Every structure is written in C-alpha cells, then in structure tokens.
Please model this.
Amino acid sequence: MNEKTIRTRFAPSPTGYMHVGNLRTALYAYLIAKHDNGDFILRIEDTDQERQVDGALDVIYNTMKITGLQHDEGPDVGGNVGPYIQSQRKNIYLDYAKKLIDNGEAYYCFCTKDRLDMIRKNSEALGRPHKYDKHCFHLSKEEIEEKIASGIPYVIRQNNPSTGTTTFEDEIFGKITVDNSELDDMVLIKSDGFPTYNFANVVDDHLMGITHVVRGSEYLSSSPKYNRLYDAFGWDVPKYIHCPPIMKDAHHKLSKRNGDASFEDLMEKGFLKEAILNYIALLGWNPGSTQEIFSLEELIKNFDYKNINKAPAIFDITKLKWMNGEYIRMLPIEKFHELALPYYKETLTKNIDLTKLSELMHTRTEILNEIPEQIDFLEALPEYSSDMYIHKKMKTNYENSLKSLEKSLPILENISNWSFDTVHDSMMDLAKEMEVKNGIVLWPLRTALSGKQFTPGGAFEIADILGKEESLKRVKIGIDKLKQVQ
Ligand code: GLU
Model:
C-alpha cells in the first residue's frame, strides 16, 4: 500500500527578520519532507494586521533562496491548495468558524475590552490562569442576531468543555493529557474578521494536506485545543513535531528582544550560509553519530525526526565559529579569496599581494568579518609597547630582543630575492650562529613587523607579505624602541 506523501510546511509570520529558531523550523520541515521525497510548502501567516512590516516578505523569500530550502508550493511559486498567504484566505476561515457555531463547538462573543480586563484581573487576584467565563455562550439566538444587526463588534470563540480531559500525541514529547478545565475558550475569529493563529493554523494545515506539523515547543500547550478543532471538524490530526527551544544560556531564550542572532545578523557577521544551516541542524537534533559536518544533501539523507531532542538547545557561538572555520577551509582558495576581498579592501590601501594574503588567511579565518582586525597591522604598524618584546616562554627580554633585531637587520638588508624562504633560511642561520633558540630571533622579529601579540602567520609570512622595504622600516622602528628602554 502506498503511504501518503509527506507534506510539511514552513509558516512564518512576516516579522522582518529570520530568527534562527524559525530558520531551524524551516530546515527541519524541509528535511522531513525531502527525506521521504515529500512536499515542502511555504505559507505566510500574516493575519496579525497590526504587525505588518514593510519588506518582510522579501526577507522570507530571500532566506529560502539563499539557504536552498526550496519550497515546492508557496505564494511565489504557486500550487494546488493556495492562496498561500493567509490574509488572502480571510473568507475561508469565517466559513469554517460558522460551521463550528452551527454544531455548538464555537460561539459569538460580544464582551467588551473592559469586561475582559475585569475577568483577567479577577483571575490574577485569585492566582488562577486567565480563562474566559463563557458569558456569551449563554446568549439566546435572538440576542445574538440583535447584537449583530446593531453592529456590535464580536469575536468567535471555541467552545471547550470544562470537564474531562483531552489527549494529544507529539512525536517528540510523547502523549500529553490536559484537564479540559484548563482549556480557555480561545478566540478563533477576531473582531476585525481575521482569524487568530490558533484557528488559521488548523484550517490551513488541513486544507493544505499537511501531514507533519513542525514548529516550536511554545505551541505545545495550545495543541490540545487544536486537536479539539480537528475533532470538531472530523478531520485527521496531523503528526505533531514540536522542536525544543533554543536558548542563549541556561536561563534565557534566544530572542530578538535580547538582540540575539537572526539569520541576517549571522550573514552580516561573515558566517557562511552552509555553516549556519549545518550548525542549526544540530541545535536540537542528534545525528546518532559523531559526525558534525553535514551538507544539505547529507542532512536530507540522515535526518530522522525521531532523533529530535526534547531538551533545550544552547546556541553556542564559539561552536558556530569553529564550524564556520571548517567550512572556510573546505572552500577552494579562489572562492575564499573572492569572499575575503571586500574585507581586505575595507582595511588595506597599500600595494599588498592579496593572493598571497589569502593563502595565509584561508586556514586562519573563522569568520569573515574578523579579517580586518587580523590584518590591520599590514596597513600601518600599530602603536605598541616595548613590553611586547618580553615573552616568558620564548625567553625574550629587552636586551636579547635588541641584540637579535640588530643582528637581523643587516642580514635582511642583504637579501636580494626577498621571499618567505630567503627570510626563513637567513634567520634560521642567524639563530644557529648566535647559538640561541629560534624564538629568541623570531619573537622579536614578528613583534617588530606586526606590533601585535597575535598575528595570522609568523615572522616569515608577515615579512613576505609586507615586502622588504616595509619590513626593514619596521625592524628599525623596533630597534629604536628597544634602545629607549635599555
Ligand atoms: N506563524 C507562526 C510563527 O511564526 C508559525 C507557527 C507554526 O509553524 O505553526 O511562529
């Protein structure tokens, strides 16, 4: 027997940014569908008319395009079950809400904001969760008709029982049973005629044939109410896959409010899209092996949603940086050069062999936007303290540093074909001749050439990139500096 084709959806609200949690939902939904040759659908959930943001749709489309999470159906590519933008489906929801009213599963509510506030305050005073008191459920048919006719604004609420229990099954969190007394008669249709997320998601997931609903665990607690809606309509309940929260640390969720990572922020910081996707795939999913680097194709092959974790995932930027570094090293050098070029241009105006620089930086870059601070010393020797010549491990001090530099200078001046190799060989010879450890010659030289504690590459690479003239100039400055402290 043929299994039903898997259909998943990514249903973002157009907020104007792509939070990494949303991108992870998109990725998991995509992987679940593609793992089984299923369909991945993009649906825009824009029924909150007060929260419209200009350009927000483009952010969504662009992210899907850049990341390669290509949807099979959606507002921009079409499909058989559209429209795929909820605001264009307004009348559909109202029709379905009316069906629920007809069979007693929903009712009109005309309560004013003041009355609702009062109920809320009462619940707070009693230390109970807010719950609508079914006041309007008891209105007669005539009263309802009269109020509607006289133009009193209304919402439509779900009619939940207050006794018994409701159970639902989540693929990750298992069986969850709640007392019906906890279920609020949530609003299905708002007074502006638009549906709430709570209603629209159920209607659309059904009408769009979604088989697996993938979303954040913040929706877990509402899912019993969604199940009651499916049951009220007599519809099959889809499989629920709620993903664990993504945390900034043990106590704080990664949230826009805390200025935390969105996909755009990460791209701007110079992370590669492949690394971001790979990293977020592992935020809450366990591949069941020690493999950490996965291409999108490998993820499709290996992804089994049963291995999504329940425990919150911590967004570890250090780990992401490491992974990004791995991806950078996997790039062909020409590609790296192309990506690094804008960052070089931002920092360097001098005539520097950028291809050579890329050879150096390719293996030493974790994220692209750290390039400027790593190479700024090539443009101009920074102000630095003579104390930097003192290095315990290298056993350097002011005196032996000065001596090394003074001995190095004429040798360097004599090099006619300046290169990594010629500088290398001459300095190694010098260390031998002076009967000192290499560090006694090389630490002062690198310090003089860079004025920095940490540099990509050592003295030879830097000398090679700076060229003879600039290198000699810097060695002389180093000598003068050290003379002043003797
Ligand atoms: N529009 C909801 C959100 O952006 C989608 C939740 C869902 O996937 O059902 O959070």
In short: The first helix runs from residue 20 to 35. The two ends are 89 Å apart (CA to CA).
